[in-house]
């Protein structure tokens, strides 16, 4: 098993030369410590242009912490992350222009209705009034305007999730970070949601999706399994399952976690 | 332009909460009226007992005067000594006035009864004021009686009180309450609404958006500042109409002072919001700070009463300056030259506290 745990032996200075051109996100020895607790422990990974990277792990494994470091919401303890050639700790402003981020709680205002939420997120991303109007029409094709005129707090989670994704994509970012986008919605909606993610991939977007649902892992092009702040397994889901001689990600995951704990 | 959307969103959120609207528009009216009537340091109808051990006509007349004043409510007149302490313990009266003949003092022509005033000190404020009144009554009686009998005093004294000649407390409480309204809405609502964004995790998304922290702050605070000003307007109208207090100064100065005060108090609200992670915490912190601000504001007790070791707390209290300015504008009709210093101090407070909260904000964002 351990052959899959590739530790890139590299120093920060030569990382930029070694990394592949098409990698739009690149983390090198990324570490986050809160006091004595190490939430993320020297992780290395890259996400290629147009790829869906699944970030898998139980709650508290360090997924959200990693994402928050990538967007500058948390200070990096050590290591580096580049997003599109920009160093997160230096050029956050540039990175913000290229990133769409959807948090676990959907980032919608419960007292505003669907349209007002769209208008708000569009407006603060610098869209013109006309562009906002177009966006509102666009979402009306997908979700009935009766629902969109309701306060978000009264809208069912599945639709809320779609509105949230729409607002997250409103300024047409190249890189999309989705933090637990499918938590709290039923399997049917989850499948639909992944359909949308594929559409985005087809448009050439790069996606990083975190989840603790193992059955979702198969949707991703590549997965990273993160456990106790460390990447314990990485690769394509089908390859990983073949190696384990199983057809469920759950077994792959359990094996990886036990290996990590025994190490 | 981007900030306009924050503004709009904030106003929608406020107006969609019916409880908030009640709090914002009905509460201040009630508050002004209730506080205006109730929070008064005027002393009226103090329950007293008179023990008259003198049978002189002077004593009789003094008792008569006490009896006829609205200040005192004479519960009982007795003619034999009583134990004042046990009377006070029962709590039926707050003062016992004892009159008796003091033969040792004075000459035959100018002989007056001795007046002893025993006060219940539990309510120190009332006791102090009432004791002053009693002394005044006794002294006035003696002076006027002596004058009537042709005695000339070498020294005349006369007190002239300007701006609030009857020393009515509503005249200085009313304007103070207006300042209080401005504090409540801006401080509570701003800190809570910022912390709510943290709870909803919308703050994360705002931070990742292209908005700068200053834009986020002002977008949150300015709509509430606006409501605060409207609220103050309501307060001024109520104070003027219900209590009949006239504004001698210009409303423009009042407005300028209020805006500068808002900068300062909102900086505090922002500081509180950076220290709290839940709405309950924010509420508690705001409430706690408001009580301190209020008690050290000079609204109820003079700022000069604060021991010098704690005087700095009053110096960094924007409410203190606002109350001072509002009272000046209302009662004295002062123009801006009289309180320009206070305005500058409030601006100074704003700069310091705002930098502190922005620093704290950035530190928390990138921990």
Account of the 3D structure:
The complex is a heterodimer of chains A (263) and B (367). Chain A has 263 residues and is α/β, with parallel strands linked by helices. Chain A has a single domain, classed as Rossmann fold (3-Layer(aba) Sandwich). Chain A contains ten helices and ten strands. The longest helix of chain A is centred in the last third of the chain and has 16 residues, at 187-202. Chain A is globular, with a radius of gyration of 19 Å. Chain B is of the alpha/beta class and 367 residues long. Chain B folds into two domains: 2-39 and 168-365, no CATH class; 46-148, abc type-2 transporter like fold (3-Layer(aba) Sandwich). Chain B has helices at residues 2-15, 18-38, 57-68, 84-90, 124-148, 169-200, 202-208, 213-243, 251-275, 279-295, 311-315, 318-332, 336-365; strands at 46-52, 72-78, 95-101, 113-119. Chain B has a four-stranded mixed sheet, with helices on one face. In chain B, β1 (46-52), α3 and β2 (72-78) form a beta-alpha-beta unit. Chain B is elongated.
Topology diagram in text:
The complex is a heterodimer of chains A (263) and B (367).
Chain A: H1 12-18, E1 23-34, E2 37-48, E3 52-56, H2 63-70, E4 78-83, E5 86-87, H3 92-98, E6 99-102, H4 114-124, H5 129-142, H6 145-148, H7 157-168, E7 175-179, H8 187-202, E8 206-211, E9 222-227, E10 230-235, H9 237-244, H10 249-262
Parallel strand pairs in A: 3-8, 3-9, 6-7, 7-8
Antiparallel strand pairs in A: 1-2, 1-4, 4-5, 9-10
Chain B: H1 2-15, H2 18-38, E1 46-52, H3 57-68, E2 72-78, H4 84-90, E3 95-101, E4 113-119, H5 124-148, H6 169-200, H7 202-208, H8 213-243, H9 251-275, H10 279-295, H11 311-315, H12 318-332, H13 336-365
Parallel strand pairs in B: 1-2, 1-3
Antiparallel strand pairs in B: 3-4
Helix pairs in contact in B: 1-8, 2-6, 2-8, 6-8, 6-9, 6-10, 6-12, 8-9, 9-12, 9-13, 12-13
